[in-house]
From TrEMBL:
Listed GO CC annotations: plasma membrane
Membrane topology: Multi-pass membrane protein
Subcellular location: Cell membrane
A Pfam family it matches: Cation_efflux
Transmembrane helix recorded as keyword: yes
Origin: domain of life: Bacteria
Descriptive protein name: Protein p34
Lineage start: Bacteria, Pseudomonadati, Pseudomonadota, Alphaproteobacteria, Hyphomicrobiales
Family assignment from sequence similarity: Belongs to the cation diffusion facilitator (CDF) transporter (TC 2.A.4) family.
Length: 295
């Protein structure tokens, strides 16, 4: 079992502990805002399970039906997480609406808030671990899980701060109002997560900064060639696919052209982790006098 799968299992374990704590906080107080926090924790556990299944499947080697591997399955997990976040937000809005119509005092607010604060602290530590390791390991599913938990932490802090004012002010409508604000914030994060994941499913090109490094590596390491054109990039999970046409003198031997390609592949893999490179070699008659000039 690799490190990504271990992180995914850890998310299920941590999510379950946090869910129990947050539900206990809601049960003690009857707070709709804390109910919204507990409901989001249920989503956390479900999506952690989905993320584990996704990273386990994405780790499978390429086969006859999937010659490019199974890496994109992680994006489906992230999209599913976005959908579930939106569903949870709509459910919270419904409860907040009825709670605003019939506000009530909170039971044992300080004890409930203390339990919720402990759960939020656990989430904060784990979200930092997931985001840091997800980016390092280039796992969209793990990174998405971490970002979702971080959003949960931010909203939990806001809820805790607001609920402290309820017993002080006696304004019980503040509880459902906070729940509604949490729901709107969750909706925004769910949409943002889905949008980012869909870019991977749609074979979106790498960011401009990465593309600039790719072009520089080709230009500086293609000595002996004439030009490179029709450069294309896309990302799928931890892999980045790079392909382009390399124009060489028509009289160059296959061996010499192959040596240039090997040099380019090494340079590109030094610049881009997980690069999968395809180079189409062409004779000088195919030059377009556009694209990447060889230095």
């Amino acid at each position: 079992m690799d490190k990504i799968q271990k992180l995914a299992i850890g998310s299920i374990f941590i999510g379950t502990i946090v869910l129990v704590l947050k539900y206990a906080a809601y049960y003690i107080t009857g707070s709709i805002a804390l109910y919204s926090d507990a409901l989001e924790s249920i989503i956390n556990v479900v999506t952690a399970i989905a993320a584990f299944l996704a990273v386990r499947l994405s780790a499978r080697p390429a086969d006859a039906n999937h010659p490019y591997g199974h890496h994109k399955v992680e994006y489906f997990s992230a999209v599913l997480e976005g959908v579930l976040i939106i569903v949870a937000a709509l459910t919270i809005l419904r409860e907040a609406y009825f709670g605003f119509l019939s506000p009530k005092a909170l039971d044992a607010p300080l004890e409930g808030l203390a339990i919720n604060a402990l759960a939020s602290f656990i989430n904060a530590i784990w979200s930092w671990v997931l985001i840091r390791q997800g980016r390092k390991l280039r796992s969209p599913a793990i990174t998405a899980d971490g970002r979702h938990l971080l959003t949960d932490v931010v909203t939990s802090v806001g809820v805790l701060a607001g609920l402290l004012l309820v017993p002080l002010t006696g304004w019980y409508q503040l509880d459902p109002l906070l729940a509604a604000l949490v729901a709107l914030n969750i909706l925004w994060s769910g949409w943002d997560l889905m949008k980012e994941s869909l870019s991977g499913l749609m074979d979106e090109a790498v960011p401009e900064a990465v593309l600039a490094r790719v072009r520089e590596a080709i230009s500086s390491n293609a000595e002996g060639a004439i030009e490179a054109h029709d450069l294309r990039t896309r990302h799928a999970g931890k892999l980045t696919f790079i392909d382009f046409h390399l124009v060489v003198p028509g009289a160059m031997s296959v061996t010499d052209a192959h040596d240039i390609c090997d040099r380019l592949e090494r340079a590109l893999k030094d610049q881009v982790d997980g690069a999968q490179i395809t180079i189409h070699v062409e004779p000088d008659a195919k030059a377009k006098h556009a694209g990447i000039v060889v230095l």
